[in-house]
Design a protein that fits this description.
It comes from Prolemur simus (Greater bamboo lemur). This is Glucoside xylosyltransferase 1. Its EC number is 2.4.2.42. One of its GO terms (cellular component) is membrane. One of its GO terms (biological process) is protein O-linked glycosylation via N-acetyl-galactosamine. By secondary structure, this protein is of the alpha/beta class. A seven-stranded mixed β-sheet has the order 3-2-1-4-7-6-8, with helices on both faces. It has helices spanning 2-34, 93-106, 122-130, 152-156, 169-172, 192-196, 222-225, 245-250, 264-275, 283-293, 319-324, 342-353, 358-362, 364-372, 379-382, 385-399; strands at residues 82-88, 111-117, 138-143, 178-182, 186-188, 208-212, 236-244, 298-301, 328-330. Helices cover 38% and strands 12% of the residues. It starts with a helix and ends in a 7-residue tail after the last helix. It is globular, with a radius of gyration of 28 Å. Residues 25-75 have low confidence and may be disordered.
């Protein structure tokens, strides 16, 4: 009898506790309902263009939900910045500023510029960039030109002044995960966002992306004249180089100097010592040698992402550009500043003289087309529409929509 009585008392106690728990949960629900909306707090969607347009804030700050400020806080997803590096020495200020302008005009996500320049150029860069600060779409950092102290003079005189600085970017910008390096003579005719998106197409072994030096082997330089190993059939051009620098810093590279694989910081100087009498294009040649021995590490993007006069000087040989237009224009060999390739110069002058006013940008391709039509006496000018095909689309996508949709 006592046993049954104990069971009854135990059941009653459990029932009473369950009833108390139910009432407590009901009270909590009523309290939260009075606080301004039930359920879990929703994460705030941070938008770089919070108010639409190029002058909007770069990102929203944290905010607490009304009525629950002391209980919940909303976490804002950080806005991804696209990091672009450029190395400017000598008379490259104006050219570099035009490149930066072209990146700003079309890009969507915020940009972080890393400008490596000789000390005497820093004040000029700062003054010009500060005059653009009203855009609120980019940040910049000015860096000095720095090489390993024991071999600084040798690195600086390799090929063009300061050009080999790019080789040391993974070691200098240690906190940067991914980076787009471009030469000063680059012009973006499509948002930087689109080439930045190629990082997600890398497979597990790829650490960098470049375009082939030539599409047509009959006019290729490396396959005809190189006295050192080079990547693929015609080598690669390093004027536009997309890098996953975290992977570059971690990788151990195969090489022809030792059976031991070497990290990025350990392989550069031995390569220079071995090949310095055989290389012509400096740091680009060293990159070709590295990726010759590590071909699985390179992602090769189409020629329209690094379009040079080589692609049209003897007739068009970049199929992708013919179909979709030029995405990134590369004015190597000084073609922006002489009369050898007037089509290239016309694009450069149009962007250099363009302001950040929406109306000025909208009318850009019309005035440019008129100038390009004057260049049809050249091989590159005969196919001038490839220079404005993507440009027209980029302007339309970015500037012909209402501000709230940008």
């Amino acid at each position: 009898m006592r046993r049954y009585l104990r069971i009854v008392v135990l059941c009653m106690a459990c029932g009473f506790c369950s009833l108390l728990y139910a009432f407590s949960q009901l009270a909590v629900s009523l309290e939260e309902g009075a606080g301004g909306g039930g359920g879990k707090p929703q994460a705030a969607a941070a938008s770089w263009l919070a108010g639409g347009g190029r002058g909007a804030a770069r990102g929203a700050g944290s905010a607490a939900h009304p009525g629950r400020a002391d209980r919940y806080s909303l976490k804002v997803q950080p806005v991804e910045k696209m990091h672009i590096a450029v190395v400017a020495c000598g008379e490259r200020l104006e050219e570099t500023m035009t490149m930066l302008k072209s990146a700003i005009i079309f890009s969507i996500k915020p940009l972080q510029f890393h400008i490596f320049a000789e000390d005497q150029l820093h004040d000029s860069f700062k003054a010009r960039l500060e005059s653009w600060s009203f855009l609120q779409t980019f940040n910049y950092t000015l860096h000095p030109i720095t090489f390993p102290s024991e071999n600084a003079a040798e690195w600086k005189k390799l090929f063009k002044p300061c050009a080999s600085q790019r080789l040391f970017l993974p070691l200098i910008l240690k906190e940067v995960d991914s980076l787009l390096y471009v030469d000063t003579d680059i012009l973006f005719l499509r948002p930087v966002d689109d080439i930045w998106a190629l990082l997600k197409k890398f497979n597990s072994t790829q650490i960098a992306a470049m375009a082939a030096e030539h599409e047509e082997p009959r006019i290729g330089w490396y396959n005809r004249f190189a006295r050192h190993p080079y990547y693929g059939k015609t080598g690669v051009n390093s004027g536009v180089m997309l890098m996953n620098m975290t992977r570059m810093r971690r990788k151990y590279f195969k090489n022809d100097m030792t059976t031991v694989r070497l990290r990025w910081g350990d392989i550069l100087m031995p390569l220079l010592k071995k090949y310095k009498l055989n290389i012509t294009w400096g740091d680009q040649d060293l990159l070709n040698i590295i990726f010759f021995h590590n071909p699985e590490s390179l992602f090769v993007f189409p020629c329209q992402w690094n379009y040079r006069s080589d692609h049209c000087i003897y007739g068009s040989n970049c199929q992708e550009a013919e179909e979709e237009g030029v995405f990134i224009l590369h004015g190597n060999r000084g073609v922006y500043h002489d009369d050898k390739q007037p089509a290239f110069r016309a694009v450069y002058e149009a962007l250099r003289n363009c302001s950040f006013e929406d109306e000025d940008i909208r009318s850009l391709f019309k005035s440019l087309e008129l100038e390009l039509q004057k260049t049809v006496h050249t091989y590159c000018g005969k196919i001038y529409k490839i220079f404005i095909k993507q440009l027209t689309k980029s302007i339309g996508d970015r500037y012909n929509r209402p501000p709230k949709e940008r």
